[in-house]
Every structure is written in structure tokens, then in C-alpha cells.
Design a protein that fits this description.
With about 475 residues, this protein is an alpha/beta fold. It has 2 domains: about 50-140, uronate isomerase, domain 2, chain A; about 140-190 and about 215-245 and about 280-475, Alpha-Beta Barrel (TIM Barrel). The protein has 19 helices and 9 strands. It has helices spanning about 15-20, 40, 50-55, 60-65, 80-90, 100-110, 125-135, 140-145, 165-170, 195-205, 215-230, 250-260, 270-290, 305-310, 325-340, 355-365, 385-400, 420-440, 445-465; strands at about 30, 150-155, 175-180, 235-240, 295-300, 300, 320, 345-350, 375. Strands 4-5-8-9 form a 4-stranded parallel β-sheet, with helices on one face. A 3-stranded parallel β-sheet has the order 1-2-3. The chain has a two-stranded antiparallel sheet with strand order 6-7. Helix 1 (about 15-20) packs across helix 18 and helix 11 packs parallel to helix 13 (about 270-290). The radius of gyration is 23 Å and the shape is globular. The protein starts with 13 loop residues before the first helix and ends in a 19-residue tail after the last helix.
């Protein structure tokens, strides 16, 4: 019997197999959005065991384990690493038809050459074999990135981050180019004024601009944006449930900022939303003027379990898809930026598949002919980065826009073992196109289809983001205390 993860995994027709093996499989990876820790890349971290590299921080696996009746101590608690791994191995057979089953076995095969199905019986041998391999120098962080042919990684970084790790990476022999991405979410989080004011103080410290008034606050944000650019940053990112329903005028934003900074009174939800809208417009102008791409991650309902939020904190697996209205507030933001000709390149990531056609049509409203695919419908995200939802996203984009201009897949992951998700996406893409070609819905033209696949897997992203072309060692020369 052939291995579960075999050469033609997910490829159900001859054309798909030709496209994947002949074109998609040899494309390098541009991972333009992820949550990999840059300090681990900087020190070329060596992992102690399979539990550390595979289970630590992986809330996808923790959710499955909890659903399988596994106690919390084996997810986020104090159980020994081998016990946590055994608990995951016992859960894997229960994940049939969940993408975790595919990802688990792709990762074992691609990184460790292990073809066995993971379960309680195979767990000891998998644990021993993987841990032995992790002791090799080529299984440190740089080797893992090189093994997967990762050309570019964009991490997700707060504006107050020093980016010292990025400077170290740029001066190192890391085979992958690594750039920061600007994530200013904390600039608008007025629901906790103590934390927000502490963050403003930190912003003032690192930028050299006073944040006691609104004008200084904006100057500080711009200085950090400039600094990120000098360090190779070419993308910003915002994780928001939905776009604000209104956008504050400069005078209104200044008044809200003053009340928040002096803590004279709580900020109403309406005023907080309008202030967030003003900051999104301001950072959108910065993105446009620097030639960056703005990413909007829309539609999550975060931290739904208040008891577990208090016990474990954020990003521990208690988030879900939200059902917030998206269309009108998204139109307001894009239109406001477009009115003065300063709408940057934008990627819209949608977490609720019910909004796929909203996003698919909205991007067409703001394409302006200046760049192919200027406004993008981003790849299946979070709960939607699996076969069925990837197909939904690509079908919606195909029906309503140009799939040919799609910038393709990303990992959105904290794990260095997540890069087979790009392979997973490429197999799904090739299978979708191959099925259409063999059904006569599109021409079965190898040159046409091959070009299509190459574009989506690599070339579109390479051309779209315009990462620095200078030698990597020169990209970390920015001065954190000055603008270029």
C-alpha cells in the first residue's frame, strides 16, 4: 500500500499532476504574512524536541485536543514534552477530515521523511526519529527555511519593536530574506486606557517624538513607519473585527486622543471607532506614499471564553468566526483613502465565508489600472486555510475578478513546520485548474495553465510587494532613532 502522503496527494487528474510536478512544486516560497518569532530566526534556534517545535503555541492543535477530551495540562500546561506529544498523537486519528490530519502528515513527511500515520502506536518511534533529526545542524531554523525553499519571510511587528532581531538577521548568513511588517493595532485600542497610555509612552521613547499631543503621536507613528521601511518593511497589517463605521475628523481625533491621554473620562465605543478610523486612514496614507501594501484581517470574534482568557491569555485557541457586517464600513475606508488618490495596495482577508462575494466584488470597486491586482482578495485565512475554503475563495475570486493576479498563499503561522501549507495550497490550486481543463471549462493549454500557476505560486507576489533588491546584509542599516 502506498504512503498516505504520496506524490499525487490531492491531485485527482492528469492535468493537475502535470501542473503541480512540472510548475508549482519548483516555485520558491514568499511568506508575506506570518507570526514567526524573529528572535528565533536571528539566533538560528535549535529545537529541543518535537513537542517544542510542533505543539508549543499551536492553538489549532490545542482546540482539537480539547475537543478530544484532553486535559489542559497537556495543551498549555505543565505536562512533560513527551506527554504532550503522546496526547497529540492520540488525538490525530480523531482528526480525520480536519485539515490538521493533512498538515500533520505533510509536516512529518517533508521535514522528517516519516511516512507512518501518527497514532498512539507509532508515537514512540516518531518521537525518537524526529528528535534524533532535530539534533542535526541542518534542522535548526535556517536549515528548515532553506529545506522548504523559503525565499522571503515577513514577520508581524509592533511599531515600538526595536527590530534588533531583524538587524541581526540582515547581517547574518540566513539563506532567507526576513523583513518586518508594521502592525499598529495597539495605537487604536482605547478600551484599556492604562495599557494604551503605557504603549504611547513606549512609542515616544523609541521614536524620539513626544506623544503628549495628537500631532506628536502621528509624527511618532510616521517615524516608526519610516524606520520599518529602512529595515526592508513593505507591508502593514491590521487585525480588526470590521472596519470602523465612521472616521473622525482631525479635530475630533485630536479631542479623543487628548481625553484618552489625560484619562479624564472613558472613551465611548463610538468615539473609539471613529479614532480607529482616523488612524487607519493616516497609516493608509503612509502606506501609499511609501509604496507599501496594507493588509486588513477582517471577521474574527476573538477571546470568546472569558474564563480561559483570564487563565491563559490571548491567542490560546478560543476565537471563532464572527458575523459582523463588513460591506459598508469597508467601502467607507477604501473610498476615503481613494478620494484623495492615496489608496495603497490592499489585501483583504475575510474570515467569514458568507462574505466572500462581498469581498470579491468590493475589490473591483477600487481597481484603478495603476497596478495589476492592486486590491487583493487574500487567501483563505485561519479557519479557512483548508481545501474546501481555499476552493471557495478561489472560485469567488475567479467568478468576480482575476484569479490570475492573485498573490497566493501565506502561512499566518507561528510554527517553523508550517511551510507545507504552501504545498497544500498549490496542490489544491492545480487540482482545481486541472479539473476545469479536463472538463473543457478552460483550455487545456500547458503553456497558458503553467504560466497561470507560476504567477499565483510565486511571480505575482514577487512583483507585487517590491521587496528590497539590495544585498541582504545592507538591508539592516536603518537607524532606529532617525528617518531615512
Amino acid at each position: 500500500m502506498r504512503d498516505f502522503i504520496h506524490d499525487d496527494f490531492l491531485l485527482s487528474n492528469d492535468t493537475a499532476r502535470e501542473l503541480f510536478h512540472g510548475v508549482a512544486a519548483r516555485q520558491p516560497i514568499i511568506d508575506y504574512h506570518c507570526h514567526l518569532p524573529p528572535d528565533a530566526i536571528a539566533r538560528n534556534h535549535a529545537f529541543s524536541d518535537l513537542s517544542e517545535i510542533w505543539l508549543a503555541g499551536d492553538h489549532y492543535k490545542w482546540r482539537a485536543m480539547r475537543a478530544n477530551g484532553i486535559a489542559e495540562r497537556f495543551c498549555t500546561g505543565d505536562a512533560a514534552p513527551v506527554e504532550k506529544f503522546a496526547a497529540w498523537a492520540a488525538t490525530v486519528p480523531m482528526t480525520l477530515r480536519n485539515p490538521l490530519y493533512h498538515w500533520t502528515h505533510l509536516e512529518l513527511k517533508r521535514y522528517f521523511g516519516i511516512a507512518d500515520l501518527l497514532n498512539s502506536n507509532t508515537a514512540p518511534s516518531v518521537w525518537e526519529s524526529a528528535n534524533e533529526q532535530l539534533r542535526r545542524p541542518d534542522m535548526r531554523v535556517w536549515g528548515l527555511l532553506e529545506k522548504m525553499r523559503v525565499e522571503v519571510v515577513c514577520t508581524t511587528d509592533d511599531p515600538t519593536d526595536s527590530l534588533d532581531a531583524h538587524r541581526t538577521i540582515a547581517a547574518s548568513d540566513c539563506p532567507t530574506r526576513v523583513f518586518p511588517a508594521f502592525r499598529p493595532d495597539r495605537a487604536t485600542q482605547l478600551s484599556d486606557l492604562v495599557a494604551w497610555n503605557d504603549w504611547c509612552d513606549r512609542l515616544a521613547e523609541v521614536s524620539g517624538h513626544s506623544t503628549d499631543d495628537y500631532a506628536g503621536f502621528l509624527m511618532a507613528l510616521q517615524q516608526r513607519h519610516d524606520f520599518f521601511h529602512s529595515m526592508g518593511g513593505r507591508l502593514s497589517d491590521h487585525g480588526i473585527d470590521s472596519c470602523p463605521s465612521r472616521i473622525a475628523s482631525p479635530d475630533e481625533a485630536q479631542a479623543t486622543f487628548h481625553r484618552a491621554r489625560t484619562r479624564r473620562e472613558p472613551i465611548t465605543p463610538s468615539d473609539a471607532q471613529a479614532f480607529a478610523g482616523a488612524i487607519l486612514v493616516f497609516t493608509g496614507h503612509l502606506d501609499h506614499d511609501r509604496g507599501w501594501t496594507k493588509q486588513l484581517h477582517l471577521g474574527a470574534l476573538r477571546n470568546t471564553n472569558s474564563r480561559m482568557l483570564g487563565q491563559l491569555g490571548r491567542d490560546t485557541g478560543f476565537d471563532s468566526i464572527g458575523d459582523q457586517p463588513q460591506a459598508e464600513s469597508l467601502r467607507l475606508l477604501l473610498d476615503t483613502l481613494d478620494q484623495d488618490g492615496r489608496l495603497p495596495q490592499v489585501i483583504l482577508y475575510n474570515l467569514n465565508p458568507a462574505d466572500n462575494y462581498v469581498i470579491g466584488t468590493m475589490i473591483g470597486n477600487f481597481q484603478d489600472g495603476t497596478r495589476a491586482g492592486k486590491i487583493q482578495f487574500g487567501s483563505g485565512w485561519w479557519f479557512l486555510d483548508q481545501k474546501e475554503a481555499m476552493e471557495w475563495q478561489m472560485n469567488a475570486l475567479s467568478n468576480l475578478g482575476l484569479l490570475s493576479r492573485f498573490v497566493g498563499m501565506l502561512t499566518d503561522s507561528r510554527s517553523f513546520l508550517s511551510y507545507p501549507r504552501h504545498e497544500y495550497f498549490r496542490r489544491v490550486l492545480c487540482n482545481l485548474l486541472g479539473a476545469d481543463a479536463e472538463a473543457g471549462l478552460i483550455p487545456n493549454d500547458p503553456a497558458l495553465l503553467g504560466d497561470y500557476v507560476e504567477r499565483i505560486c510565486h511571480r505575482n507576489a514577487s512583483e507585487f510587494f517590491r521587496f528590497p533588491v539590495a544585498e541582504k546584509k545592507e538591508s539592516g542599516s536603518g537607524d532606529p532613532g532617525s528617518c531615512p
